[in-house]
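Quick check before the chapter quiz. The format below is the same one you will see on the exam, so make sure you can read both the input and the output lines.
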Amino acid sequence: MPENPGIRSLEAEKAVLGAILQDGDALHAVMDILKTDDFDATAHRRILEALLALQGRGQPPDLVLLSEELRNRGDLDKAGGPAYLGELADSSPAAANVAFYARIVRDKSIARGLVEAARRIIEKAHSMNGDGIDSLTAYAQGEILRAAAAGTGPAGAEIRDLVHQTFRGIEERCQKGDALPGLSTGLTGFDALTGGLKPALLYIFAGRPGTGKTALALNIARSAAGADGRVVFFSLEMPGSEDVERILSAETGIDGFRLARGFMSPEEWSRCVRASDALAQLPLVIDDTGGLSIDRLMARARRTKAEKGLSLIVADYLQLVRPSQRWGTREQEVSEVSRSLKALAKELNIPVLATAQLNRGIESRQDKRPTLADLRESGAIEQDADVIAFLQPADDKGDVVELKISKHRQGPTGTVALLFDRKRTQFKDLRAVTDDRTAERKDIDG
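Here is the expected output.
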C-alpha cells in the first residue's frame, strides 16, 4: 500500500525498529509511548511482538535471536524474511532519537483511528433509523473520544508519580489554609463529613416530594458557581425562571411568594436589583430543556467543558432524564442514566450531583426514615453513586431537615441537620452528627 503521509509513516516505523536493534534499551522508551497495534505495517507489528518476547526472557534484541524467535512463531516470512530484518538492522538510525520516531508512529496511529471513527459515524448517520440526532451526536462524540484516548499512552501510573502528585495537592491546601479537597457545597457539616464535592464522583441527594431537593441543589450550585468555577444546572422539573426566582429569594431573604408576585417594599426592590446584578455575573448555566435525554445532557456537558471549562454538573432530577433508548423495564432505563452520569463524572473529572425521588412505599411504613432500598427504580443507583444522602424532615413543620449520608465510598457516613427556610428556599447549617463508626475511630486515635 502506498504511504499516505497524513495517516502513516513506514519510515518512522522502520526507524523505531532499527533503533531497538541497535540499542536494546531503546525498547523501554518506545513502549512508554506507543502500543504494538500503533504500527500500521503487519510485518512491523510481528517484529515488535518478537522483540518484546525476547525482552521478557531477558535476551538481547540480537538479529539472530530475533530471526529465530520469529521462525518459532511462524512469523518470519510475515515479518519480511531475513533480508528485511537485515535491512532494518543496517538502517542505523540514531537510537537517542527513538522517542521522536515513536511519537510519529503514535500520532499516525491516532490519525488512522480518527479516520476510522469518522467512517463509522458516517455509516451511522446514513442508517439512523429514527434513533434521533441526540443519539447520533452522542455516538459521534464517543467514537472521537475513544479514538483520541487510544493514543494517551500506557494505562496506569507509577506509585512514585501518584505520591508526588498527591503530596503536592496536600501541600497546596496546607499553604492556602484550605483543607477541603473538593468543591464547597456551602454546608459546613456536609463538607466536614465528605470533604466537599470531589472530582469524578457521583452524588445522589434523594427524598420524597416537598423535602427541598431542588432548593438544596440550587443552593449548592449557587455556592459552587460563586467560588469555584462554571456550573451547569440541568433543571428537568421546573423552568429556569423559577429556579432564578428561588435563588434570588435565598440571596435577598425576601419571601419567595412575595418576590414572585412583585409584592416588595422599595428597600426590598433595591435588594432584589443588586442581587440580580450579582447573580447575572456568575458562571452558572441553567438548562431547562424538557424531556432531556442522557445523550444530549452528556453532549452539552462535554461541549461546555471543552469551550469554557466546567467544575460541577447538577441534574434535577435523575428519574426525569430520558435514557438513550427504550429498555425492557423502567428500572433498566434509570440504571442506564445512573451509569452514564457516573461515567460522565469520570470522563470530565468533575463532580456530578443528581437529585432523586424515593418510592411511595416509605409513606406507608411506620418508620419513615429512608434507606437505600427506597430509591425509586433504584437499579444501579446504589452501585454507581459514590455518595448517597437522604433528605428527611426532622420536625412536624419540616423546618429542620436531616441530610443523612447513608453511603460514602471514601469516608464516614453520618447525619447533618439543616435549617430549611421554605419561604426563602434556603438551607443553613444547624449541626452535624457523625455515626458510631466515626466516634469509634476518634476513641481509638485518642
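If your answer matched, good. The first strand starts at residue 202 and ends at 207.
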